[in-house]
Design goal:
2 copies of one chain form a homodimer. By secondary structure, chain A is an alpha+beta fold. Chain A has 3 domains: 16-23 and 454-596, 2-Layer Sandwich (Aldehyde Oxidoreductase, domain 4); 31-130 and 191-242 and 247-279, Aldehyde oxidase/xanthine dehydrogenase, a/b hammerhead (Aldehyde Oxidoreductase, domain 3, Alpha-Beta Complex); 368-439 and 605-756, Aldehyde Oxidoreductase, domain 4, CATH 3.30.365.10.
Amino acid sequence: MSKYSVIGKRVHRVDGPEKVTGSAKYTFDIVLHNMLYGKILRSPYPHARIVNIDTSQAERLIGVKAVVTGKDTLGRKQSTWRRFPELCDEEILCRTKVRYIGDPVAAVAAIDEDTAEEALDLIEVEYELLPAVFDPMEAIKEEAPQIHEGVELNINVTRHIEWGDVDEAFKQCDYIREDHFKCSSQAHVCMETHCAVASFGYDSKLTIWTSTQSSYYIQALVADMLGLREGDVRVIKPHTGGGFGSKFELDSAQFCASLLSMKLCQPVKIVLSREEEFTATKRRTPMYYSVKLGAKKDGTMLAKEVRVITEGGAYTGMGATALYLTGFFSSFPYKYPNYRYDGYRAYTNTAPASAMRGFGAPQSTFVGESQIDMLAEDLGIDPIEIRRKNGMTPDYEVPGQAHIQSCGLHQCLDKIDEHIKERGELPPNRGIGVSAYGFMSGGIFNWFDTPYAFSAAIVRINIDGKVDLFTGACDIGQGSDTTLSMICAEELGVHLDDIRIHAADTGICPADLGAWGSRETLMNGNAVKMAAADAKRQLLEFAAAKLGANIVYDMDIKDQWVHMVDRPERGLSYFDIVKDTIRGRDGETIIGRGHYTPHRKGMISPAYSFGVQAAEVEVDTETGKYKLINVTTAHESGTVINPVGIEGQLEGAVMMAGGYGFCEDQPMDEGKILNPSIADYKLIRSLDMPETKILEVDTYEPEGPFGAKEAGEGLTNPTAGAIGNAVYKAVGVRINDLPITPEKVLKALKEKKQQAE
Amino acid sequence: MSKYSVIGKRVHRVDGPEKVTGSAKYTFDIVLHNMLYGKILRSPYPHARIVNIDTSQAERLIGVKAVVTGKDTLGRKQSTWRRFPELCDEEILCRTKVRYIGDPVAAVAAIDEDTAEEALDLIEVEYELLPAVFDPMEAIKEEAPQIHEGVELNINVTRHIEWGDVDEAFKQCDYIREDHFKCSSQAHVCMETHCAVASFGYDSKLTIWTSTQSSYYIQALVADMLGLREGDVRVIKPHTGGGFGSKFELDSAQFCASLLSMKLCQPVKIVLSREEEFTATKRRTPMYYSVKLGAKKDGTMLAKEVRVITEGGAYTGMGATALYLTGFFSSFPYKYPNYRYDGYRAYTNTAPASAMRGFGAPQSTFVGESQIDMLAEDLGIDPIEIRRKNGMTPDYEVPGQAHIQSCGLHQCLDKIDEHIKERGELPPNRGIGVSAYGFMSGGIFNWFDTPYAFSAAIVRINIDGKVDLFTGACDIGQGSDTTLSMICAEELGVHLDDIRIHAADTGICPADLGAWGSRETLMNGNAVKMAAADAKRQLLEFAAAKLGANIVYDMDIKDQWVHMVDRPERGLSYFDIVKDTIRGRDGETIIGRGHYTPHRKGMISPAYSFGVQAAEVEVDTETGKYKLINVTTAHESGTVINPVGIEGQLEGAVMMAGGYGFCEDQPMDEGKILNPSIADYKLIRSLDMPETKILEVDTYEPEGPFGAKEAGEGLTNPTAGAIGNAVYKAVGVRINDLPITPEKVLKALKEKKQQAE
């Protein structure tokens, strides 16, 4: 018998049939009896005091059932950083002040969307305009307008990380360079916009169906904001059309639908328009980097000093975490003996900048991987070689921060080295750039101050052997329902279709932090594996009794066969043992429980994935336009649970991170986003996609379920840097300012030509 | 502090707010995307062979999506008597033969009900008519047509119960009388007709929302009939508008909707019309009784011999149980030292006769309580007195059948005696009749052959102290959600609104036999109490540790206060201890489990309720019409959990059992029910309702949760007998043939007058 029966196999997604037949229900598809439709009125000004809101005309419009403003709220402020009250700064429905174009000021519930929309026009808001500031560099100046009361210099959060003796180390360097980079904003552009159906009943209980990455966060935050007990709020995540970091904070659709429903005791649905999605939800944090890097002649990097200022936008959101992670990942994936990071997040009168796939790491990886290539060139060292010399290795301790157990970076470097050699001599204006990276498998930090285990699972085995798996994990399209079902089936020794997963419904599933930070495979996977093992143990007790086995024999289940490990032919059918066990326990179903919270794994994450990516581009030197020809990635994520899932993650990541490096941007004019539509916001579409390839690397993570670790966000980190390095390899110009657009390339080519002349 | 904080209190139903505001969702209210509507074609003949079914025209009708017949099924036969395959005799969609007017032969799914209805007319069924038999006395004759192949004399089930030496005992009797009785049919007349929404998805999983008394039975039966695994079928019971015994068998709406949905991969809703409800669902079993009763001069009853033939209708259904229970309850509530019962269930070409509230006991109680009054009169003994002399007492063993622990019959007799005395001398043509009775608190028999515990519950405590209670119990209007929530709150020491119940959804709740046989308060109550105790124990461990209590002290929780039993002022807040416990367990929620299956409690039930009812009537001797003036009941159900619930049960029972005694009937002509509408089927309506009163009796049942036992069906048993006895007391005529209509009374009065002349 092979080692694994389910994991590592190419299986169909458990939600595949529903999705391909169009029968999968998303929040948008939910229609409740008597349901109303809500719309949200948003500030047209980047910074203004609310003098008065007159809703009387809107309320008189036929078909309008309710209008709410900040006065209808408890006036509480929130964020997911509950542990730090000063970072809970967002009211959602503003009471006294708006801080960006898009800040919600009122919401309407009406019999249809058109009526609600019409009512918005009838709400009269009297504003007193205030001076606004959009650039973080300006925002931190003495003379800048103050965006939040009591926050001096608009500095929202500061972060400091340091180890070794950085100043001393720089003195010992043979070579030091200092560079500046700018990382742009990016929109998540989920297929499904933010949306919620909220139903508050006469039983004083609130149920919310919503597109979310964390049912539990929304449950807890809504309860607090509306003055309800958590247990009286049930959040159900139907099928979800993407999250990418945009959907684990409480959003205006969820909050306003809930508030309106509570006022009316009627269900209310709010679906954000695509324009609202672009202008009034959160986005990737723009960052300004100054980096000083020192090395010995042989390429050994001795010291790094990073200073970052981020454009925070109007509220904290998850931006505080992005500020921390970009600092931590600026040291990745290398062994800097001396390191210092200072990060500052500035409030600005722009849409809040927060979490997005990679969570600060795509920025730091672009910066770090651009600079290491510069260093390598300066010192005349091969880019792969300099990464080999400094790259992390297994069992490496990031001083005071993290313990890295498994690490396959060097195997990845070997694979990519081989790949580049195979490509051989390239035609003119073509280049291959490489970028190494690492990422976490879920975060250890508990800024949400959850009292619950980070992940938990319940496995129930019924009389027919069918297994109900309950988990709070949120499948937002990334495939966690499939991955967790596979882990459950493998551990329990049954088939994938023996598992029926119930996920992300706070009414029936254990609390779970949700889908962010690439945590589900490792954290939920561990909880699921433990729950399945707990259930299996109960079966094996009865099986051992029935087989009359000598107690020294180990027993296990595989392919629905309960057997002795060393004599697999001696066994019994799983189905029979399930029946016997339930009978033996007076008819009680078998329930296994598992929960996982990382301990003694440092401050960041219990495990890290690593990888190296090579991007090949071809530049048209006449126009600056370039094509992505091929993106090849060696990603090591420990044991691969779901190979098809990883391929999907890779393709999606290349599309998204390629867009980040290549074309995506959110230009603003006085705080107003200029391209709030899919027509104007440039994405990489299927026809622009390069050939993608994944190179297998075999590692094993002791902390992960069956040795697995993340394969989600990490893949988003390398591409911008690899593109930048590839453009440089192709035509010798380097762009430090994302995205690397044809305009910038052409301008740099011209400047280079002028310099040469 | 008083003994109980929650139980015994007059609380609002937990489903009250939803119901009184009209926001409660019933199966009828469920509308799914792409949902179709189904209709069922039924046999117009009582007995016929199906020669051919041509569905081609119906299939061509625009708007029709599918037509199914018996050929689309696996040809399996079912009933809830799974342990006895020969009693599984109902195909639902008949393949070769129809056996009653209403037997389903085809079903249609279409875009709306009208189209489906129209399509039914286009289905051409060629029948070969067969001779039919309607009267059970005829059906068991040699020359009668055979309704089921291989079933000789159409005898479907026989039952024999015997103890003592009956023949010898009769020899020792001073007085013997033999009487014949006929008990009529009765319709359940639920406010909500049978209905189901079935949705079979591309994931090959079937979800059914249905009005049922047992989600689990329907899950198991549908799975078997459609060849699915139980775990792939999820049955959800929304709010339910009554069951009364009619809704724990698989019905045509559930089966046809599921079959159609499986064929189409689209949701299908079927709601039976009121006419179908009367003609093509099951009904109370008509019974023919011959009873021989022997006593000593002093009224001590020595021997009873009962022979019953029941009109079974076309299929077994739950009729086999009714046959057994009417035999067992024919000995109730008296201590017969010698007893013999022979029961025969005959197949007839009428709608299947099966379970209805009381389940055979209203019949046997009418018969027994009529006859004991005759005996008392013959011997010149007061009716209360003869019941006192023979009535059951605590710790009584029904030989070989049952062990009765608590029994408050004698207190009930005292209360009713007092009540009658209080009424004093009555005007002419008025009379008070009494009737004593007993009933079970759930059945021990496992003809369904469930491998699961009879009841199970899971209690989950969340960080905010809110408690999720998961149970398979089915609240069909009787209030089990409230009763079980009260039990959970009491045991856990929290408030009723701390509990949130999740019930009767096989996807998330433990398996449970459902709501029948008055089992939920005792059986589910025990499981819930155990689950709550299990959760509480976990809290008390942490509380004891925190309080540093000497380990000999007992601790408990009451009113959200965790304290030492003997020093209640020393304690801690429940909410704090919940937080501590979850924290102490690394964030795992607290889960308690409980399950209950009766053991060593005989063959029938773990506990029995008792009661005595007095009905006062006034007869108009000119017309035979009579009025129910007052019905007063002393019912002992052990500790009263939910007093408002018992009052509701009593009122409903007087209405339903009064109707059984007074006016309800289903006359037939050649197997055709003549009054299939609420206009023609006579019910007692609110204006006809007598004054009702409940007299409290204090008992304690050791096997029940907090000492509780049943207060549901038992209340349906006495009324027909009490009415019969009251009419006799009022005007001296006795009707042995239910219902006791004015016509029968007038006829008897005339006969009496003629005899006297």
